[in-house]
Write a structure and sequence with these properties.
Structural class: alpha+beta
Radius of gyration: 23 Å
Shape: elongated
CATH topology of the largest domain: Butyryl-CoA Dehydrogenase, subunit A, domain 3
CATH superfamily of the largest domain: Butyryl-CoA Dehydrogenase, subunit A, domain 3
Helix content: 25-40%
Low-confidence stretches: 180-213
CATH class of the largest domain: Mainly Alpha
Number of strands: 11
Number of helices: 3
Largest sheet: 4 strands, antiparallel
Number of domains: 2
Order of helices and strands: EEEEEEEHEEHEHE
Mean pLDDT: 82
């Protein structure tokens, strides 16, 4: 189990110790749901306030994109919390974390789909404006293939997060069908080069899309 942060039961509550990295809204949020070990193979979640004694922030990551949501470290040094700061029951940390990640995947899919759509718009605009030997490069087959690859990736991502959101709305278990596998040898022949070495969603198979130049 990779998690090293711990919570030890003490009189009147729990004592939390450990460091947490790559925390969404780290250094920005005021309240955090912290996943810690309450046993050798047991995880639990505690609600912690940034103003509690022993709570401290570490570095903030400097990412290329998605800079509107800071990612940072938090340090817990003998942070004492009462029993009512336990979220759910002792040992339910894995289930709670899985549900949180399911929601995050849906939201991230929507964000990334929008980013790819904007990138495609910029690329298509440039291909129409840039000329080579008096001809717009958008009329060249090699450039059209690149734009088509971007569109395939964007459509695949959009199908995946919309399907996940639909399942979530119906109360279905997202993880029961959101499975990933490597592309088959046949699929790798027509998948865009940017995705051939990555996992491909089973439920959202890319289809060839013509992009008007």
């Amino acid at each position: 189990m990779g998690i090293q942060a711990t919570a030890k039961r003490v009189a009147g509550g729990w004592l939390l110790n450990g460091n947490k990295v790559m925390i969404t809204n780290g250094t920005l949020a005021e309240v955090y749901c912290v996943l810690v070990k309450t046993g050798d193979q047991e995880l639990s979640v505690f609600v912690v306030d940034k103003d509690m004694p022993g709570f401290a922030f570490g570095k903030r990551e400097n990412f290329i994109g998605l800079r509107g949501t800071p990612i940072g470290e938090i340090f817990l040094t003998d942070v004492r919390v009462a029993d009512d700061h336990l979220l759910g029951q002792v040992g339910q940390g894995g289930v709670i974390g899985d549900h949180a990640h399911d929601d995050a995947r849906i939201l991230m899919g929507a964000v990334l789909s929008g980013i790819m759509q904007h990138a495609l718009s910029l690329a298509a605009k440039y291909a129409n404006e840039r000329t080579a030997l008096g001809t717009p490069i958008g009329q060249m087959q090699a450039i059209q293939r690149k734009l088509a690859d971007i569109k395939i990736n964007q459509e695949t991502t959009q199908l995946l997060w919309e399907r996940a959101a639909f399942a979530k709305r119906r109360g279905s278990r997202i993880r029961s069908w959101l499975r990933w596998r490597r592309p088959t040898a046949r699929a790798r022949r027509w998948l865009p080069a940017t995705t051939r070495c990555r996992c491909t969603p089973v439920m959202a198979t890319p289809t060839t899309t013509r992009w008007p130049i």
